[in-house]
Amino acid sequence: MAPTILNPSTLPSDDNVNPYAFCIELRQPWFLRKGAMIAYYGQASFEGLAQTSLSAMVAARFSSPLYAQQWVVAQGVGKVVIGDRGYDINSYDLDAGNLTIRAANLLGFETGLELKQSIVPGFLTLVGTGKFLASSNGPVIFAEPPMRVDPEALLGWADCPSPSHHYDTGWMQGFLGSMAHAVLGVQSGEERQFDFTGAGTILFQSTEVPRPDPAYLAQLESQVTGLGVPGLQRLQTVIGQRLAAEQQH
After folding, report:
1. Other C-beta atoms within 10 Å of 192: how many?
2. How far is CA 247 from CA 142, 151, 186, in A?
3. What sections of 42-83 are H helices per DSSP?
4. Whose CA is closest to 109, among 136, 132, 75?
5. How is the chain split into domains, by residue range?
6. Is 138 helix (H, G, I), strand (E, B) or coil?
7. Using 50, 70 and 90 to split pLDDT, how confident is the model at 3?
8. Rounded CA gap, 165 and 177, in Å?
9. Are the CB atoms for 173 and 104 separated by under 8 Å?
10. Which DSSP state fits 103?
């Protein structure tokens, strides 16, 4: 069967081209993750947050300096196609809502939404009314709390309190017994989960493979400055054991 040849009139407007690509009808500015744009028709510009002419809007709507270098403002007129390494892409609409999402999976959002830094490392919070785009490694599953979710599979949560960590009995017994090799080895979702309570919606993907997040690494690096020599030596031991465990996979 011959492939469908698309053009500006046949591309969808604010909808999926296929499960792995989304087409934005650019009528208003959008915040886009760097590298998410794979093609566009029309007159569009993509400016870094520090260089854009819409600096007042950026200051009011983007409140996460940790991730600022990873984003641009798209403006102009045309159609912009978004992709993410062949991952599934979905659009979501918030109506005076509040949703926290894994930062590495957030691809774009309308300027009617405000982005804030989540208290949970590696996650961002969107507040307000508007559309946003997010990728997932496999279909997204929606569920209600109370529920425990593998940290690697978790995509986000809406209208419910931030999760707490839950460690299983075996892990805690190893910790309390100072069994460092058990405690500091591979921590799968069976050993550690995010525990959600209250009301709301939880989003998770159909895999435990997360997307790398350079900003999360930078955040961790910024927190080691106050550890001192004993703390740094301890951290070096932990990292060595984690690397050895990962290399066995």
Report:
1. 17
2. 33, 20, 11
3. 55-61
4. 132
5. 15-136
6. coil
7. confident
8. 20
9. no
10. G
| Paired tokens of 19 | 């499960």
Say what percent of the chain tops pLDDT 70.
Answer: 78
Give the CA dihedral 213, 216, 222, 223, nearest 10 degrees: -140
Q: How far apart are the first and last CA of the chain?
A: 41
Q: Which tokens belong to 31?
A: 């915040």
Mean local confidence (pLDDT), 134-163: 90
How far apart CA 124 and CA 62 sit, in angstroms, is 11
Q: Would you state the pLDDT for residue 179?
A: 44
Residue 49 structure tokens: 């947050």
Please state, in angstroms and rounded to a whole number, the distance separating the CA atoms of residues 83 and 106: 11
Give the separation between CA 204 and CA 48, rounded to whole angstroms.
30
Residue range 78-113, pLDDT digits in tens: 999 999 999 999 999 999 999 999 999 999 999 999
Average pLDDT of the segment spanning 53-62: 93
Is the pLDDT confidence value at 173 over 90? Answer: no
Provide the sign of the torsion angle of the four alpha carbons 239, 240, 245, 249, taken in this order.
positive
Look up residue 249 and give its DSSP letter.
-
In angstroms, the CA 210 to CA 55 distance is: 32
Q: Are the CB atoms for 62 and 115 separated by under 8 Å?
A: yes
Long-range contacts of 242-246 (CB under 8 A, 24+ apart): 242/184, 242/185, 245/185, 245/186, 246/186
Measure Cα distances from 3 to 6, 152, 177 in Å: 9, 36, 62
Kindly state which CATH superfamily the domain 15-136 is placed in.
Answer: Mitochondrial biogenesis AIM24 (3.60.160.10)
The per-residue DSSP string of 29-69 comes to -EEEETT-EEEEEEEEEEEETTT-S-HHHHHHHEE-GGGGG
| Residue 210, token pair as written in the block | 């997360």
